[in-house]
């Protein structure tokens, strides 16, 4: 029974990955189909906000972000769609106790880690640091959860080379 308990993955982690994946896909869909209305709404709101307070930090922050997002929206739509779908598929794989689900989640984290670290170093913020820490804890939990499986894979790969 203790072995079965070790095989269970926390539903909080799976739920977090599914919800974040769905939000990424929805944001990509919104960028693809509702870009103009969202952009016009943003212009109205930021103009009104800056008229009330010319030094509004949030409005000024969005002034620097939104044009970049608008300029690179095709890449962002593609990236968010791929990441969101990958997270949802990996989380569903974990729910169904498939080995590839854990591999997909760990692989996605390892693939994105250099980009997250670069982004944190070049533009440090508390939110980026918290995001990186949360994802690191999740991946460490998943790797610890399946340590025996990864050790077997490494041993098998090393034996096959010999």
Low-confidence stretches: 1-6
Strand content: under 5%
What is the multimeric organization of the chains shown? single chain
The main pleated sheet reads as: none
Indicate how many domains the architecture comprises: 1
What is the molecular shape?
elongated
How large is the radius of gyration? 20 Å
Total strands = 0
Mean pLDDT: 84
Structural class: mainly alpha
Helix content: over 70%
| Distance from first to last alpha carbon | 37 Å
Order of helices and strands: HHHHHHHH
Characterise the protein shown here:
The chain has 162 residues and is mainly alpha-helical. The chain has one domain (2-161). 89% of the residues lie in helices and 0% in strands. The chain has 8 helices and no strands. The chain has helices at 2-7, 11-33, 35-52, 57-71, 73-95, 99-122, 126-145, 147-161. Helix 5 (73-95) packs antiparallel against helix 6. It is elongated, with a radius of gyration of 20 Å. The model is unreliable at 1-6 (pLDDT under 50).
